[in-house]
Design a protein that fits this description.
Blueprint lengths: L7 E9 L2 E5 L1 H6 L5 E4 L2 E9 L2 E5 L2 H6 L10 E6 L18 E11 L2 E7 L13 E4 L2 E9 L2 E6 L1 H5 L11 E6 L1 H11 L10 H6 L4
Antiparallel strand pairs: 1-2, 1-6, 2-5, 3-4, 3-6, 4-5, 7-8, 7-12, 8-11, 9-10, 9-12, 10-11
Length: 210
């Protein structure tokens, strides 16, 4: 389990043969073999440590469902160690199980902040709630607004400068994980006899879910 608060930026050394190797001085000095690490939102297992390098296994399923397969030497990745019992939960509960790849439609400055418009993978729009949580590239963010499969998120200067979002350009792929609570709510409601068309914001408010 993770929180969506990025602790360090890593640099890709190489990716291939089912492994991903990055340079990450802080992570390499604190993690152990077998530990879980979220790499741009993807939960991976550390299999080798040669400071400042860390190597993790990457499944074919992971390559197929995330943008890790697009990584090349020199690319930046967001890193977060697993949440420890008693640790501070500053973001929201993040599993590291990416639901799919979104696409950055546009990015623009708004004063000191940045505004990103993102096209969601098919089927994820039903989990989006205004002011609700979403994980993008492993970062806990808030949905500012959404229309069908397009959402808008606002990025504060610290997040922009301390994550790989500063490197993302229009058309780039983004790892997306919908809020875990939203998934359970929708799953529960869809199993009820009520038709899917009745599951909207007003219905969720009336039943006490939001």
């Amino acid at each position: 389990m993770f929180t969506g608060l990025i602790k360090e930026l890593g640099i890709v050394v190489n990716r291939g043969d089912g492994k991903l190797t990055i340079t990450a001085g802080r992570l390499a000095s604190t993690c152990c073999i077998g530990e879980s690490v979220a790499v741009s939102g993807v939960c991976l297992t550390v299999v080798d440590i040669s400071p400042p390098r860390v190597t993790m296994d990457v499944l074919e399923e992971t390559i197929a469902r995330t943008n890790l397969g697009l990584l090349k030497s020199g690319d930046m990745v967001n890193l977060e160690p697993a949440l420890k019992v008693g640790g501070e939960l500053g973001g929201h509960f993040v599993t590291g199980h990416v639901d799919g790849e979104g696409k950055l439609i546009s990015r623009r400055r708004s004063g000191r902040d940045w505004i990103f418009r993102i096209e969601l993978p098919e089927g994820l729009e039903k989990y989006m709630v205004e002011k609700g949580s979403i994980t993008i590239e492993g970062i806990s963010l808030t949905v500012a607004e959404g229309v069908e499969n397009i959402i808008v998120v606002h990025i504060i200067p610290h997040t922009f400068s301390h994550t790989n979002l500063r490197e993302k350009r229009e058309g780039d792929s983004l790892n997306i994980e919908a809020d875990l609570l939203g998934k359970y709510v929708i799953s529960f409601l869809e199993k009820r006899e009520a038709p899917a068309s009745s599951i909207d914001r007003s219905f969720l408010e009336e039943t006490g879910f939001i």
